[in-house]
Amino acid sequence: METALGLSGYQATMYIIVFVVLGLGIGALFLALFLPARWKLKHWMEFAFVGLLIVVVWYGDKRSAEIVSAYQGQMEQAGVLDQPAIDGAEGFDRELTVIAFQWGFAFLTDDDEISRNAAIVQPGETILFRIFSNDVIHGFNIPAAGITAEFDPGIERDVWIRAPEEPGRYLIQCLNYCGVGHAQMKAWLVVEGEEA
Amino acid sequence: MSNAHDDAARMGAVPHWEPEDVIGKMTLKTLLFSNDYRHIAIKGILTSVAMLGLGGLMAILFRTELAVPDVQFFGARPYMQLMTLHGMFMVFGFIIPFVISLNYYMMPKVLGTGRLLWAGAAQWSYWLLILAAVFLIIARPDFTWTFYPPMSLRVGGDYAFLGYMAVTLVAISEFLAGAVMFRNGWEAARRISWSKLPLMGWGAISEGILLMGSTPILGLVGIYMLTDWLEITAMFDPARGGSVMTFMFMFWFYGHPAVYLPLMPAIAVLYTLLPRFLGRPIWNYWSAVIAFSMLTVLGFIVYPHHFQPAENVSGWLQRTTQLLTLAIFIPSTLHVFNWIASLWEDRIPDSARRAVPFKFIVAAIFFLMLGGVTAYVNAQIATDSDFVHNTYFVPAHFHAMFVGFMANMAMAGAYYLYPYFTGRMYNQALANTHFWFWQIGIFSKVMLMYYLGFVYFPRWVVDYLPLSQWTMPQYMLTGAAYLIGLGFIVFVTNIMWSATRGRVAEADPWALSDDAVKSGTTAQPAE
């Protein structure tokens, strides 16, 4: 399933780049150590290699910015980021307000129903989380949805995800150290439906 | 245009000392108060080894706790105290002072200043750091080395104020060390000229700029944390009108350069030792100078990437930070390319292949690549907003750099200088054992941490869910930590045993012993 950030193809490309560059470097190091033939490199080769890496840097910056821009764009169109919604723009299937505290999460629905440490959603729907901290800096990470956010007390942080298609319980965890109870600061994304 | 021998001298490819039992001749008084560069450096190195032992023991303890899920030995608070002190001791107490002390020892001869200029400041730097370590041990804070407020203002314990005082003392100590580094590098450049300045001089100037530019802000952070804790001010506490954002920008203005504080001197040591073992100059002098300069500039401006999946880093700031962070690839590549090209351009003498410090240098280059290349993923906001930020992917990256590169380079320097400290050689078999225990341990640790980060294992947790993708890697990670600890014990045993029973060192312990070296820059007799 593709996550809200839409990372699968992009990440694969980035891993390939990392492995290729690393392979070139380690390969060159081992050849320099163990190959009987010696080779005095020309200085232009270094410029050429750095030039190649500049292209790699440009590509990484571009792809990452496109993905983040598309992700943010979804919220901008829906009027989440202090802007009016664009006519005809698709909103989110569900909005949940999240109160993060030492040490847990509370989820509030539009109907003011509150659920402690469980966000109940439907398979595949898009969910907007409006996150607040009432004490210290916390993190909000849903591994199954491929999203991480860090947020300061007193400042709203908005993130959205696409819920997994498969019913079940998915981990939500704090990723910022927030005091001695940090390890226990977990909640569950509960995707309703019959589990396989 | 300089000739080959000038180049060799400029690059440090000639010996600078004669083996001597400097440590054996030291008294308690010289150990504590002498301003002789050798005494200050040896004191710093020995203290750093002790700090490595302490910080490493803490790591062994909390890794034992993490070997399996649930809480076995420690509650959350003692666990976080160990974790916090481990980070602070390793960064402030071990790796930064260790590589700076190596530079203190090498600079007077390599740069030709003859003595360590401003040695008194180096002495003060040392003692302030010791005082900071004592404060930290008394305070035993549990708020990690980044002590984010307002959390740290509420959970630090009754003696948290000593922790904030320690932060300020570290800042003053590092500022003084930076002044010493800059002064010596600058003076050498003034005497020799910039174009002939050994690369260790460029490293010293870069290090000095980084230290003196960043530590005043850290000092201010420590003071404000203290006054906030005492409720005199409310600089960083939003509940009392302060701003967390201000803290983030101030702290990481020091925090990112802090990553480079052990990097620059370690690179400088590498540029000094590699020509010495190869018997030829570094492949491209100016490439190294450009790389040092770029790292210094970038070191000051990329710091928002440490908190970039946060609301306060967005828009143009986020994009610029991403691009500049990615650009660190360029100076890093210039360095690595230079080292590999230097290795490749002619035969590697047999004497180098046997030398344990040379092996540590090669391992360090390997780990710089292993740690550096994943920064490509770390730097990108998209991946950072997925599995990178505050998962084990981050400690994987910095352990590859701090332990894989910098600690390996610290060991390269320590083994290299050992005959000049003691007049004797280390035991080769024990040194090789140390080397392999470390490399296998560090590689396993780094790769397992990368994997755990990829599957979203969170940082700073005493307990974790028994998920199949987490439990076995954590168990193996503890094994890797034990192996590194065992390597450290072998190292300490070796340096203590060999100091009195090791083979007496020859006039030039690192003389080239390969007739096939054709570069025309064979080692000169020791001075």
Gist?
The complex is a heterodimer of chains A (196) and B (527). With 196 residues, chain A is α+β, with helices and mostly antiparallel strands.
Question: How would you characterize the overall build of this protein?
Answer:
The complex is a heterodimer of chains A (196) and B (527). Chain A has 2 domains: 70 residues; 98 residues, Immunoglobulin-like. Chain A is 32% helix and 29% strand. By secondary structure, chain A is α+β, with helices and mostly antiparallel strands. Chain A is built from 2 helices and 10 strands; from the N terminus they run H-H-E-E-E-E-E-E-E-E-E-E. Chain B has 527 residues and is mainly alpha-helical. Chain B has a single domain, classed as Up-down Bundle (Cytochrome C Oxidase, Chain A). In chain B, 72% of the residues lie in helices and 0% in strands. In chain B, helix 10 packs antiparallel against helix 12. The longest helix of chain B has 35 residues. At the A-B interface, helix 1, helix 2 and strand 7 of A face helix 5, helix 7, helix 13, helix 14 and helix 16 of B.
